[in-house]
């Protein structure tokens, strides 16, 4: 990103230099240059380096130093296993133990079960237990992305002693900017920000300066809802609790940014009918495997359409010109369906559509479909009339467009709302599915009308 | 979100109670209940309340209190004007002055120019100047989302005096968790986190504990690139500089979360061909206005398709059965084009696709298109052969599918890559456009082949 970052050489790692230092086996100089860079830049280098250089990095870097790299890296999930294999087993276990527990869990979830167990066995009991606790939680829930390395302060501490606790905890905790206050039974009692603590008099009691209205999330909450709450409330961290308000962990904003992007990519890829967004360096065969399920399903649906159209073969045989408008009509229906689908899916995802406004949305979409359908229908009638001088054909095509757009627009919002109601992710009713459905409906409307009025054509 | 938040009444504002207190003109009790809630909840109530109750809120709340509500609210841009009109002009100006300058700019950018000028005139000079400075920056750049309310510390301060500076600045600054260190000429020299300061000895010199490798963004950088950098590096704040490394402002993570969502929604709506994602409470007429530009454009393109097909009227007239497979072929081309478009657009947006890998992506997509095209082509051939017992027709349809999917897949990645190269937002080559283009290409391939082999059918 040359236009973004200032071209100050010292900001980033000099990758050529680092490679040379590794090749020349200069651990001190390597460490000096490499560790001065931001972990994200370290991670980028680490991923690119190749197994030979990486093996040398395992010699020159401590497990804790490598753990920091793994924390921020964006190594694709399926590659974790390979990287860990390169390391000595004990070194790998040490590194996992040094990672924040939530991130270690992300890694362990992606590798071979028996391998994961080996690493857990090699860890110290406390580290292993922290990780095992988190491994229980289902993927995509608050529990699976929370960390257990956070700071709590007793309600009756003074600001002075709170500061002492913070100083102690700072090197380990994932954030010390929000501190959660727990009562004697580890129930969440309040929150106080480091900002509040700094401003407060040293002798004040935490219980007096804390905010008792803490917004928390249940450990079973969906990660997308957690992300929404943090974004809405501008939190840097949010506490995770069980039904009895016991504090179980916290979720920090850096993990939430990843969730926001993950969920947006997810909705986006479903709209496009890609089961899972592939990374650009996947092979053609792997990319094809990801896309074929949708394409095969759509081939079937397309054959159904063809089959239905077969019933109108006689009509098509009589007036071949009819066929010429099929892509136009199907395309318009597909597009307006996708538009209204996108509004509904995104509205559900961002929480803009709540229970009470669902009916309102449906009525609005019906109105919108009527307007867009009428405008496009009249427009097409005029075009056909002026181009082919066929008033009846123009009326027929225009009416089919009006009907198709109306039905497609209503279906485009009705289907995701229905899926949301029956607790299926509405994004699954993705673009290609809605488009094909609307293809079928619109062709039925068009050829049905044509068959009725065939004598006029 | 009942399953997300714990049902503790005291966490949120009791909206009925607040309404009653406003109606009964009980300023003290209203303030007690209302101000205990999180500003986000206050904002939700404020938006819903209606002009009558809001006018009373302007009486009971200070401009500074209302400013906090405006900070976090998600009032749609076009409604800012209406809300400000409800207030006394001086009160509105006071409130804008109390907001963080970056947020005040967001509001002023959306309202009538002459009104904005009035508010600026009524503010104190310093507040007005801060806002005017930011108003210069182009929308969607780092400059437009940065704040100028941040803390800097001289390089030679001790940790003790830095803490004193922070205590002083805490109530005003947007964040005190990252502190940027500037040299005598206000050039960015380093960064130190509050965590580092807390851990450090009180007598250490900031220059010694700060990190000199600060990642910064240029004031003209695109907000999407800023968001990417902050997400990658897990920053809570990033400094904004000019070409000479002068510190101009900072961008905090809460604004970046909004950017991430804005950009994701933007890509998503473009894929669906909605010029701008409409909020669910827009009227049908307004929603139709947003969607019609695309639909009208696509009607034109659809008429071009119809026109091209008109040239094959004789072929269609001879074998009416041909028409039956048009939606299938066009649909498959449209869908595989959208898949490959989505991968390319998202890859460019997330920075996964960099210059060097563009050619690689094109070659990969060509390979992918060949594989998916072959699989679907053979599959369709078999279906047609088994269903209609027509080997030649099956071969024709199968070959058309193979060709269409191949071309559509390559076009789906080539077009966004080309647009990115010539500095047009690739998301503009949105779904409906690619779909219609692929409709045309696939129908030409199909009917072209059919015309060539018409004697065999």
From TrEMBL, chains A, B:
SUPFAM superfamilies: CBS-domain pair (SSF54631), MgtE membrane domain-like (SSF161093), MgtE N-terminal domain-like (SSF158791)
Keyword Cell membrane: yes
Primary site of residence: membrane
InterPro entries, per database record: CBS_dom, CBS_dom_sf, Mg_transptr_MgtE_intracell_dom, MgtE_N_sf, MgtE_transporter, SLC41_membr_dom, SLC41_membr_dom_sf
Annotated source species: Edaphobacillus lindanitolerans
Lineage: Bacteria, Bacillati, Bacillota, Bacilli, Bacillales
Name recorded for this polypeptide: Magnesium transporter MgtE
Cellular component aspect of the GO annotation: plasma membrane
Transmembrane segments: 292-312, 318-345, 366-387, 393-419, 431-454
